[in-house]
Specification:
Immunoglobulin-like; 9-stranded antiparallel beta sheet; 51% strand; CBM2/CBM3_carb-bd_dom_sf; Beta-galactosidase, Chain A, domain 5; Cohesin_dom
Length: 662
């Protein structure tokens, strides 16, 4: 038994749980509940993620306030998971081996599968709840659950279910994905899946080309309790290659392949209860080293405009439409329920819509409808290229019968433009030069992305390309994943980079990509790195306190000295206070642990060190020599540069020098 007694007990327990108060429309709350689940929700819906070792990362979805103006859908499950999510799970197909996402579980759902290593327990970021696993030290799989707008309600009452698979290995890997959802509408575990024109109540398979934009489920048109909706195609998702509708038991037992019997009712395998589930498959594809594959679907509340009557009528369609969508059309779906006690004769349905849109068969004839019968119809609407679209339009669906009253529903659609990304690039850190070095280095740069278009840019990823001499800091990654960027929204992305022997205004590029082939490359030529001039300074090695009789050492350090051929320099000191003991060669005169020629400085005159050196190697920075002194008197000492000549690239050049006071 899975849901009979367990569900009853869960409902009784939940009667005593304090209802979470949502913060505000679109505002999320998060918490750990009394069952150690991580929750992320708002006024309408909540994501519940299992935080236990057994089944960690598995999730459920529930309503909070549900649909506005409806009180009978509050705090209802959309995916079974009370009090602890475990029945829904995701499978990864890797080179013909099948793995279950998340922490190991000994329970029925996914029991026969293999498991990867859970490398990051569920944690919350701005874009949702993340969980990460690693399979065979090469395939990283990240689950990201976030609250997004439903396509039919226009409200934040849907959950985006995303998996990002990254090949961190050195060879090609063949990867596929299956998402199995244990769907449930309140206490109803067997409501029909309404897919296009079909009301599915038995095992059925749909291939990609057969899938409508979305599917819905409800128990009644005249008085629905909960209306759920999943999205197969269109903006914001990656279409599955095939979809199975079957009983939960069979899908729970089969991690990838399962006992599928077309036409068999959703009777839970091995038991005697109706229990439906859905499994979406993305067929295995080759992923090269360094590549990432993303899979996205949605599930949550559905928006249906309903007018009860003798013939009840419900109508749904996307709340917003842009015709850069992959299939260039959008659906209008009508649900007709004969709620009278007689057979409705010669039922027909008409769609009245603006001439700016093309639609075939505006009138659809159903024929006779028995009492209690529900029929669903679908129109596919396309843009009329000959006419411009209004910002919004209203359409009417009217149902008539010979022997009952007619009924009609009006619904609005807003037409929006495609997404348009505007990008700017800024230095976060103020760069300066200290002792000839760039400070800070590494430093942060920030890209600001704003969607100035009319619709959401889905699943934005952005990659930074740097010119020679700039590189990513340790552990920094070139490609980042900001996620969805709604119309008018602005987000910021930072990278930490390091400069090597470069200065001036440098070019960088940012490659931005989104779902359904969106790509935009932005180039910037004004990343301003301060000029690093050749520079020599005297550096006193650290001492807590200098006393008479102490021995000290001072390095002569060069920065930005690439191309330095030779130097002729005077170093001055006060022999009354310091006694020169020795001058040793610096690391400029070492290569592969071998000593290179170093001309002994002229120290014949007290207080003067005369260095005349040919530089044997090409080097950007290093120590020319180390001066060793004995302190004769405790005083304020100064060591300074005298007349100096520097030859860089066979020409006499200006070099900045800095004296030392201590």
């Amino acid at each position: 038994m899975r849901k009979g007694v367990c569900l009853t007990l869960s409902i009784l327990i939940l009667l005593f749980i304090t209802t979470i108060t949502a913060i505000g429309q679109g505002d999320n709350f998060d918490e750990i509940d009394q069952y150690n689940n991580l929750r992320l929700g708002n006024d309408y819906i909540v994501i519940v993620v299992n935080m236990d070792e057994n089944g960690m990362g598995r999730f459920a979805i529930e309503t909070t306030g549900g649909a506005p103006f409806r009180n009978n859908d509050n705090n209802k499950p959309l995916i079974y998971g009370r009090p602890k999510p475990w029945t829904s799970y995701t499978s990864i197909w890797l080179n013909n081996e099948k793995y279950v996402f998340g922490g190991e579980s000994g329970r029925r759902a996914g029991k026969s599968g293999k498991y990867g290593e859970l490398i990051k327990k569920p944690y919350l970021l701005d874009d949702g709840i993340h969980t990460e696993i690693m399979i065979k030290d090469s395939i990283k799989v990240e689950q990201i659950l976030s609250i997004v707008k439903s396509s039919t309600t226009g409200l934040y009452d849907a959950v985006q279910i995303k998996y990002r698979v990254e090949n961190l290995g050195n060879g090609n890997e063949k990867v596929g994905l299956r998402i199995m959802l244990d769907t449930m509408l309140g206490q109803n575990d067997g409501a029909p899946f309404r897919i296009g024109k079909d009301a599915v109540v038995s095992d059925r398979l749909y291939y990609k080309k057969q899938l409508p934009e979305f599917w819905q489920a409800f128990d009644s048109i005249s008085n629905p309790t909960v209306t759920s909706q999943g999205t197969f195609t269109g903006p914001g998702v990656t279409s599955p290659d095939k979809v199975y509708l079957a009983d939960w038991g069979s899908l729970a037992d089969g991690v990838w392949d399962f006992d599928f019997n077309p036409g068999e009712e959703f009777l839970r395998k091995g038991e005697f209860e109706i229990d439906s589930a859905i499994a979406m498959y993305w067929v295995p594809e080759m992923i090269k080293p360094g590549e990432t594959k993303t899979y996205i679907t949605r599930y949550g509340l559905g928006g249906i405009t309903i007018v009860p009557g003798l013939i009840s009528l419900g109508v749904t369609s996307p709340a917003e439409v842009t015709f850069d969508r992959p299939d260039k059309t959008f659906p209008i779906i009508a649900y007709i329920e004969n709620t009278s006690e007689i057979t409705a004769k010669n039922v027909r349905v008409n769609l009245d819509i603006t001439d700016s849109l093309n639609v075939d068969d505006k009138e659809k004839k159903i024929g006779d409808m028995e009492a209690g019968e529900i029929v669903q119809l679908i129109w596919y609407v396309a843009d009329n290229d000959d006419q411009s679209l209004p910002p919004e339009t209203q359409y009417t669906v009217k149902v008539e019968a010979d022997n009952t009253d007619s009924n009609q529903v009006k619904r609005e659609i807003i037409f929006v433009g495609p997404p348009q990304l505007k990008t700017s690039l800024n230095l976060i850190d103020k760069l300066s030069v200290d002792n000839g070095r760039l400070v800070p280095n590494p430093f942060d740069i920030q890209a600001v992305f704003k969607n100035v278009g009319g619709s959401t840019l889905y699943d934005l990823s952005t990659e930074l390309f740097l010119p020679p001499g700039l590189l990513l800091a340790t552990k920094e990654r070139a490609r980042k994943y900001p996620g969805n960027l709604e119309a008018g929204q602005e987000i910021k992305v930072n990278w930490k980079i390091k400069a090597l022997e470069v200065d001036g205004k440098l070019p960088v590029a940012i490659d931005n990509r989104g779902l359904h082939g969106y790509q935009k490359i932005d180039r910037f030529d004004d990343l301003d790195i301060p000029v690093l001039d050749p520079y020599f300074y005297l550096n006193l090695n650290e001492y807590e306190e200098i006393e008479e009789g102490d021995y000290i050492s001072i390095d002569i350090v060069g920065e930005n000295i690439q191309g330095l051929d030779l130097l002729d320099s005077i170093i001055n000191y006060d022999p009354e206070y310091l006694k020169l003991v020795h001058v040793s060669r610096g690391n400029i005169f070492l290569k592969d642990n071998k000593l290179l020629p170093f001309d002994k400085p002229d120290t014949s005159k007290k207080g003067i060190i005369h260095l005349s050196e040919i530089i044997p190697t090409e080097i950007d920075r290093g120590t020319l020599a180390t001066l060793h002194f004995k302190v004769l008197k405790k005083s304020n000492h100064q060591i300074s540069w005298g007349d100096s000549t520097f030859i860089i690239d066979n020409e006499e050049s200006e070099v900045i020098t800095r004296d030392l006071n201590f």
